[in-house]
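Notes, Module 5: Reading structure tokens.

Key idea: the token line is not a picture. It is a compressed description, and you learn to read it the same way you learned to read a sequence, by spotting repeated patterns. We will look at two proteins. The first is printed below with its tokens.
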Amino acid sequence: MARRGGRRRLGLLACGTLLLAGCGSAEPDRSAAAPTEPGPTATRSFAPGAAGVGDSYFPSYGNGGYDVANYTIKVRYDPETDKLTGTTTVRATATADLSAFNLDLAGLTVRSVTVDGAAARHARTDDELVVTPATGLTSGNGFVTEIRYDGRPAALRTEALGEGGWLHTTDGAIALGQPESASTWFPVNDHPSDKATYDVEVTVPKGLTAVSNGVPKGKSTAGDWTTWRWAEGSPMASYLSMVAIGKFRVTTAEHKGRPVFSAVAAQLPEGGAPDRSIARTVEVADYLESIFGPYPFDAYGGVVVADDRIRYALETQARPVYAASFFRRGDNTDVVAHELAHQWYGDSVSIQRWQDIWLNEGLATYAEWLWAEHSGSSTVQRTFEQTYAAASGLVWRTPPGKPGVENLFGRSVYERGAMTVHALRLAVGDTAFFTVLKTWAAERKNGNATTADFVAVAERVSGKKLDKLFDAWLFGTERPPAPKVK
């Protein structure tokens, strides 16, 4: 996630304010996992799954007792009435013997729920959908849940992080936000620790475009409605899902055998800075690939939206979303580099818990510094020195490895996170450092990880003990001494 648009510059580091807060029934399909042989019924003890994954920062986010393999989401949205009608099919595997389980769903009305084709009882508790299947779900077995729902989707608001989720716009809607947004338009296990693949169909009035994640799978029109189809075949954290509906200027191409699909809000001047900047997406991605290793997904692209409520960029998987405000001062490939770096760090390698968000933002900010050096506008060392000198007391008092919910997207996570990365580079040398980056991306591809995992990789690759370095830069509350250039 990048800072809000409208940057003042420190070298090429953006220093603006952060966003506090980027159908039909199916036969049972148990392909999500091979069935296990159940023991005698009498020895089973079925219980409800937890209403949360236990993340200390957001205890109610996500749900326990199952692991999702795939979401098939089919929604129809009418901007004129702001009504959404949907059917979402969730293919998952039970990780405990479940008598009931929860899904996150905000605001919408549930009309019916089935589990493995049989009607299931359902109830709502705040933003939770509680599903009680006709029979218990045995640990290790796959199951399929289908939920039909409708209503007027609404944004989510939290005191510390602001607004995210489904936003009705003048010509459509945008579903976007971090740390949560998905639950405003489909039922979901809404935590990055449970990644899944996605198949999305969005039906909208003819003449509008509906953009989502991954590979475009075509569109079809029937009467006054057009259905746009998308597939993200790599595991994706739920907050990285997105939909943008409206009038867009669409550009398509192919690069290295992958589709490139970009869309710019039609009300923005054609050929302007937004078009020019995201047209360089594959150029920037190829440069980052030379540093981080192979690009991790099956599609490229970007979306530029023109809505004053969105003043940030978000690394939505395979198709980042950028606020138009990032391009008001002209071309801006810095933010493109930031969001594309997230495709490796944040999207392919995802955090296991929200406390470790610096792993995403510190590495993505450092990618901006690398891109600035590559493009000849600054050097990484100069940007580090300027950032170090200008960092406020709050940056040093807030440990990026444990920022707290109130500072989850604060300057320390971005700036001190990037400075931590540079301190590591100076400590281990360029050869080991760039090997660490590629190893991290390769070994953790499509998975989740923690700060401790990153430290372990850095120590293994470099052959050095690095606990003091990471303790000072990630967890200390005072300014560490500036590392010396060797």
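Here is the second protein, with the sequence above and the tokens below, as before.
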Amino acid sequence: MESPDMEPPGMDAPARRPLGRTRLTVTPLGLGLAALGRPAYITLGRAEDLGDDRSVATMRARTWAVLDAAWAAGVRYFDTARSYGRAEEFLAGWLRDRAIAPGAATIGSKWGYAYVGDWRLDAARHEVKELSATQFRRQLDQSRELLGEHLSLYQIHSATVESGVFDDEGVLDLLRALRAEGVAIGVSTTGPRQADTIERAVEAGLFDTVQSTWNLLERSAGEALSRAHAAGMGVIVKEGVANGRLTARAAPEALVTAARERGTTPDALALAAVLARPWAGTVLSGAASIEQLRSNLSAAETGWDAKLDERLAGLAEDPEAYWATRGALSWS
């Protein structure tokens, strides 16, 4: 087997770059495992993508195949979470099987949500949020048991100002202690007040990275992310294709037309828009298949300019409306 630290012959691998002020490096495009580690998620079209067989063995095999394709394409940032079903387990097994050494890829995970879906599509609840010191201790132990020395970034999952986590000294002390051990500390954001959460994270001076939603439909966090970047924080962008709303399945006609004119796909053009932001450190693909991954990764070769930005500015939605739509998406 080819050494996993070597690029496939003839490939121009994406250059790794620092993730903010951390010692970590990332590639412009990373892979998020939210859609791969559990049978149900809120991405559009999962029935077509995954079929009826969502057994653990089948989902593990699918995850490994997508990870292999991502690695071969030069992707070196992988993002998971405790609440992504068995995603940490799948990733850890793949890292061991492929003999990938700690540091050869940057691995980020998150704590704060627990997966409670019992591997069912029809679960009444799939995840439960608890941003407490007890939850942190429990989930950090679980993440470390699986990922060991590979775990290089640990993020609060979907923090909000209202959650009170920024005022919980018990949690903050635990985060400081983990950071002192050499693990970078991050925060992910959610909801129409993402910008407020980002500002609190910047003010805290504790967080090395921030992971936020930014896409052509939801641009409201852009200025706050620019300020976080200027303050030295690494910026990870999630949901660049808006849970499938900016793919060929559901993309607005203006995006479909622009993509067709440029000989690319709507998802690639949408991700190219994110890559064009000077504050974006790494942008996550949420692909559930090799085909989706390849389409997403083609964003790196897809052009974006100010004229196109102006042309598609009208796609932006009111943040409250955007997040209401996202909240109404079905787990499937």
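Summary for the second protein:
- The CA atoms of residues 10 and 222 lie 36 Å apart.
- The first strand starts at residue 17 and ends at 18.
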